[in-house]
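Subject: mismatched residue count in predicted assembly?

I count 785 residues in my input, but I want to confirm that the predicted structure covers every chain. Input:
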Amino acid sequence: MRRGLCVQFLVALVLVAARASAQPANSCLTCHATQQDARIASPAALFSQQDVHRERGFACADCHGGNPAATAKAQAHDAAKGYKGKPTGPQIIATCARCHSDAELMRRFAPKQRVDQATEYATSVHGKRLASGDTNVATCVSCHGAHGIRLVSDAKSPVFPTNVATTCANCHADAKRMAGYKLPDGSPLPTHQLADYQTSVHYNALTKGNDLSAPTCNDCHGNHGAVPPGVGAIANVCGSCHAVFAEKFATSVHKQIFDKGCVECHSNHAVQKPSDAMLGVTGKGICQPCHTAEDKGDKGAAAAETMRTEFEQLKAAIDTSHALIARVKNAGIEVSDQELALREAATKLTLAHTEMHAFEPTLVAPIIADGTKIAAAVDVAGQKGVSELEFRRRGLAWSLAAIVLVVVGLALKVRQIDQRRQKSDV
Amino acid sequence: MLQKTIDWLDERVDLSEIRHFVAEKGVPVHTQKVWYYLGGMTLFLFGVQVATGILLLLYYRPSAAEAYESVQFIVTKVEFGWLIRNIHSWSANLLVALAFAHFFSVFFLKSYRKPRELTWLSGILLLFLMLGFGFSGYLLPWNELSFFATKVGTGSAGAMPIMGHFLLRLLRGGDDVTGATLSRFYGLHVAILPAMATALVAGHLLLVQRQGMSVPLSIEKKLKPGEKLPQMPFFPNYIMRDVLAWYVLIAVLAALAAFYPWELGNKADPFAVVPPGIRPEWYFLAVFYTLKLIPSHILGFEGEKIGVIAFGIVALFLVVVPFLDRKSLRGERSPVFTVLAVLGLVYLVTFTIIGHYAK
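Triage response: the counts match. Full output below for your records.
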């Protein structure tokens, strides 16, 4: 028995020793962690904390080369052992691509992950400028970080959807860094994209509505292959989410005229919540100055005004019916059918707004007519509800009057029989 | 015509005993006689519940798929269905309120003392049954509020020691509140509880008729030896006053039904997020809020379990109170029990109000 226990102990000891010797020695971390210079110490510290590569068994030498088993700096940083030091510019792309473009290797760690980032990057403005020798542009580490890298799905990652805009703005909102860069049309590259984006419906949906599918920079510009969407491509970019609008717009006369597609009316970074007021040639209408109210023969102006009036009429009809139904509902009459119908009418209004992007009033009119018909039917039901309410209250008044009469009659009768009893008692 | 019918009946079944009972039955007249009306009013509302409940049964369908829609149909499409459903809901609440008022009046007047122990026992069981009616009926419209409140309520029953899990599964018809729970609550609400209540009401009324009205101790003590309280004939003097009170109740119910209709809410969705403000009916609020306040663990024991046991002990105390209150049995004042009743009333009112406003 005791002999058996001793054998088991020795086997366990050998296994532990074997496991300890299997761990690769990493003198990089132990040495760098003790350095006074933060530039040298912090990468090691960051890498030691949460880092997706370290967690999957990668070490400093996998990117920087060198001999992690050596304890002396000269041997550890030996170029003969592949020591590269801190990769810069194109070296960064090559270093990351060594693994991330290797489909066979990546399959072991993240089978679903794409392996064409480096190829895409080469087609981006960043990649092209880097290839031409501009080392000021973004590389992999500019967005993902170099040490302490987190998964894209980690909310603390700089490339998590809610952080992307700020990450891009680290460079793109920096006027000094952007000085000298130009747009394809030759104008200086602006630095107010983030400020504009933060006023948009997309930013609101993403950050306040917690809708992670709402677009941020990379959804329109691409991430690794980031470029400004070119003329003619904008409608496709917006259409990747707003498919029906893009489809309707593709059939419109404006498709031929608007170079910047959707952006002509809705802007790019500062996309605001659209309103009916945008449609038309008066007030806040954005169809002016191309179309004008003064030109009575301007068919576009007339079409815009007609469609806006129809939208406003249907919206007013829905609002009126809503108020009526709410009143009846508050009084206790069941109106779920009417509420459902009003939702249907609101859907018609949305459909009409969508159809409007073809800029053809004859396509909008039948949808508006359907919506108006539904709202009118709800109104009739609402009025019926009001009559029912009046009937109930009248009925209550009459029955209360009858009850009061009976109560008074009973009270008198009780008094009478009480008096009669008292007399008989006497 | 009425006399002819009575005579016709009299020839076939001897009505002399009933006639004698009607002529002889009296109600003592004193300053506290107003409390006598509460029992009659509660009984009247029980009748209203039976009548409106039967009418609702004609259209109600007890399944998770159809219950909500059938109630919706009753209040929108059935002629005067809204009135019947609203009266049933309001009357249920008034009934519980009046049952509590009747219970406290009997407690304060010590009317449970000998020889009325059995009347008290049947009454207290009826009060529990009324709460059972309220609990089971609340789920039947199968709306969001009732669904989640039932989950909480049956969950508390599950905290009972030893038989908690069995009771929870018995009530729910499974581990969770589902269509099976609805079927059980329906059976309970329209068959089991009414059968028990009918038997208990009959027994309670029989005892009241046999023993007559109890005279409060304070009045009884003022009587000189051999002196008797003046009596008022039950028929017609007292019964007409009772009918008058019932008419007032009808007026209140009609006004409530017309001006404060009982909301149906949204259909229950077992997969939906629990909506905010889930709380049981007002008459369970004090218990609900107390259980909420109890820490999760007390001296190593589960807090909720201790709470449920405590309420069980209170219920048991109420059942056996006539046998515990020895002083009133001897015709003496029993201030300890009066103080207990005051404390109970203050606790119920305070915790119900706080529970209503608590988030």
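The first helix of chain A runs from residue 2 to 22. Marking this ticket as 'not a bug'.
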